[in-house]
Design a protein that fits this description.
heterodimer, A: 190 residues, mainly alpha, Arc Repressor Mutant, subunit A, 10 helices, 80% helix, B: mainly alpha
């Protein structure tokens, strides 16, 4: 990942003339203003520090290359949406890899006892899996509202919808996630 | 433009008020909802699954990361930016940045002291504005009204005995 990024950066230095993009100091300003929030959100989605760094790097690389180095109209929205998409892709890849390994392996069902239901790590992983499976619109709301802890007004502004619509979408997402968690825990004990 | 803004703000306030009002009558706190849930197994299951979801969210949010994660993420991201940004003073600062606690976090340890001080100030203000004296006057007047009532009903001697004891 780092070597790919380095090659990108070298190409960026030579290909894009300084005059076209300006100094792009706003990228660093964006990092200063939204970096902490982004890291928190990515950490909550990925729960792995290496992955957080990768997703964070990818996000800022995309920002710097956005339309030939132009500043997006809403930098915060661009950063948070782009970071959440990157993180979800990584999460999906991780889950499919895990599934693949389980299939290749013993081919036996993971048997969990009721006390393991209380195991916080499993519950968290299951929720992450559920979030990754939500439809795009609902997933973005849940991530921005519950994991990035932004207000409905901010979420609405970022997604171009009203705060009330954001509230309705979140309600739908919560219902779907609750059903998903219930189904998953029922499947385990069958 | 200003009228539009004012209308919008009023609309927002009303929507907020409406949401709270509906929530108090139809939300989980409403007595009839709680009564229904206690008798309906389907709703109990739904509530349990929502509870599990809330628990999962709380667990995710409560997991701390290393304090230098922001620093490392910034360094990694800066390393792929163009040369002029990579070596700027701002970039150097970002590479050493640490997450800052919010104002709320900073002052949370002084919370009880602040609350006590505020309570003391409020009592002093009430005393200064004569509120305590007025309250005492009201108490004395109601006491004498009650005494008169008892004197009429059970006689002066009995009333004196009750109220002057």
């Amino acid at each position: 990942m780092t070597s790919r990024a380095n090659s990108y950066s070298l190409a960026w230095d030579f290909v894009v003339p300084e005059s076209l993009t300006g100094t792009q100091k706003w990228v660093l300003s964006a990092m200063k203003s939204h970096g902490e929030g982004l890291v928190n959100m990515l950490w909550r989605i990925l729960a792995n520090e290496e992955d957080v760094c990768d997703a964070y790097q990818d996000t800022f690389l995309k920002l710097a290359h956005y339309q030939g180095g132009r500043k997006p109209e809403n930098v915060k929205a661009y950063l948070f949406r782009s970071a959440s998409n990157t993180a979800i892709s990584m999460l999906r890849r991780r889950h499919s890899e895990r599934k693949f390994r389980t299939n290749i392996g013993a081919k036996q069902k993971d048997i969990r006892s009721p006390w393991q239901e209380l195991d916080s790590k499993q519950l968290q992983e299951r929720l992450r899996e559920g979030i990754a499976q939500l439809p795009d619109a609902l997933r973005e709301i849940i991530i921005l509202r519950d994991l990035a802890e932004l207000s409905y007004e901010q979420v609405g502004k970022m997604l171009g919808i009203s705060a009330a619509t954001a509230r309705v979408y979140r309600c739908k997402a919560v219902r779907q996630l609750a059903v998903w968690l219930q189904k998953e825990s029922n499947n385990e004990y069958v | 433009m200003n009228t539009f803004k004012a209308n919008n703000q009023r609309c927002g306030r009303i929507a907020e008020w409406f949401y709270k009002a509906v929530n108090s009558r139809l939300g989980l706190e409403a007595a009839w909802v709680q009564k229904h849930i206690s008798q309906c197994p389907r709703c109990q299951r739904r509530l349990a699954s929502l509870g599990r979801l809330n628990l999962a969210f709380s667990l995710i949010k409560s997991q701390p990361h290393n304090i230098d994660l922001l620093m490392r993420a910034n360094s990694r991201a800066i390393s792929v930016l163009k040369h002029s940004l990579r070596y700027s003073i701002k970039a150097e600062k970002l590479k050493k940045i640490k997450p800052e606690p919010t104002m709320l976090d900073k002052f949370s340890k002084y919370q009880s002291t602040l609350v006590n001080t505020a309570a003391c100030i409020a009592i002093l203000l009430l005393m200064k504005t004569g509120f305590v004296n007025s309250a005492r006057k009201v108490e004395d007047q109601s006491r004498s009204i009650l005494k008169n009532y008892y004197a009429r009903q059970v006689g002066q001697d009995m009333a004196d005995e009750i109220f002057d004891a």
